Amino acid sequence: MSVKTGQCMCGAVQLTARNVPTTFGQCLCDMCKRWTGSFFMGVSVAPEDLEITGTDAITTIQSSDWAERAFCNKCGSSLWYHVTEGPYAAKLSLGVGVLNETDDMVPVREFYSDRRTCAYQPNNDIEKFTEAQVRAMFAAPDAPTDTKG
């Protein structure tokens, strides 16, 4: 377990999470696909272990009878998924994508695996580009060098 920092795309929501496990789950349900444009990767965190600034930029919607989702109302970044009833309500699934450093984290479970499509299959035969190559293709020559895409 470790301490991780993170933020939404625009920086309006910033967070520090304590007791973050190194393992996480990914969900391929239709709602997660629509919510993220891909699939959701979430790490289980207790709400009391989450320190957030910019809460005025957070919007929460009830997405099903048993869960809600939070996102930044300034930039649209997915923040977390939270089961609201039953034994899993004690924690929320914080989006792995909002965390700043995830090199030590690995997926260990997949939800709605029967909803996986060809778009979510690992493919080692596809063309790959490094950050430097992408910046050379799309960024202005004098653009600051950061990791924003």
From TrEMBL:
Residues 4-109 form the CENP-V/GFA domain. GO terms for molecular function: carbon-sulfur lyase activity; metal ion binding. InterPro entries: CENP-V/GFA, Mss4-like_sf. The keyword Lyase applies. SUPFAM superfamilies: Mss4-like (SSF51316). Keywords: Lyase, Metal-binding, Zinc. PANTHER family: CENP-V_GFA DOMAIN-CONTAINING PROTEIN-RELATED (PTHR33337:SF40), GFA DOMAIN-CONTAINING PROTEIN (PTHR33337). Belongs to the Gfa family. This is Uncharacterized conserved protein.
